[in-house]
Amino acid sequence: MPRDLARRAVRRLRRAVLGAPPAPAPLPVLGYVVAGADGAHPASAHVRVVRRVEHLAAGGTATVRQVDPAAFVAGTDTTGYAAVLVQRDVLPRATVQPFLDAAAARGVRVVAEVDDDFFTASGRQRLARAEYDPDRLASIDAIVRGADTVVVSTPELAEVVRPVARSVAVVRNALDPGLWTPGEPATDDDRPRDEHRVLYMGTLTHAADLALLHDVFADLTTTDGTPIRLEVIGVTDEDGADWYRRLEVPDGHYPAFSRWLVAHRQRWRAGVAPLRDEEFNRAKSDLKFLEYTALGIPAVVSDRPSYAAARQHGAVAVPDDPAAWREAVRAAVEHGRADDGAARWVATERTIGRDGDSWRRVLLG
Question: How far is Cα 328 from Cα 47, in angstroms, rounded to an integer?
Fold first, then answer.
């Protein structure tokens, strides 16, 4: 007992002389500006920004906070941000320069994020057909030109952006493991028996790509005569086609949509991702391959630069020939499961948290 008392006395004396141990350094604060709030964001915001910054926060790398642009510009948000990430056209055109000025005055790095070709003439024309008005395109141009760094999803897009940006970094798309965890693959007993279904999903910017599949799916069957039916989620607003079925899904933002897809993965035997040979499409990412693979189904894709890496890891890349597409889709449907190598690659190389720290380095140095 006396010895214990002596030890405690020594510890108290040491603390009095040396002081308390230093507090850990505070984490850097990362701000981000995206459309929506409280978890309700567009799919691109979830994929490219929200899910990634949440992983940074969960891993103890940074404190993250969604930024109110008006409060940031007015100075009522006095947070000491290390950097602020601005996605696409989330800032109105008239707000871009005041936002950049406010960041410069406070010594805050601005990182812009884009994942499509908003810059070439053909790219802007295609986006205009998908309801991007001139002010939205002007907003993107202004933030990309004014940001300290621009982060993009593919090397091809980096080449498009580099002439107008100060600095460009490539961070490839990756899946959030909290959303894309299908578990055991579907079995033949889980599949519909009167037809085989193939999934094509995407935004309205892919409406022109859908037309590539007309001669592929018209009267397509497996070798035993079972019909192969294309089901489309998003992509087009048009009904009434006799060669594809538009599939309505429950309302919900990207996390809910992803979980719905995972829960219904047994519905499909394959997924397709056609891309026309156009300038806009050359900058597209391989996200569809990642998502189809996570659903446990094989992916048949256009043989484009977007899918060069995916082709090396199990994607079936097909030239612009309807007969080649029909044969590839038929073979994928009859196989019915994602390639084991593709699943391993997506899990180990293209999943958030396992795809390196390039995102952290771009944002926080």
Answer: 29
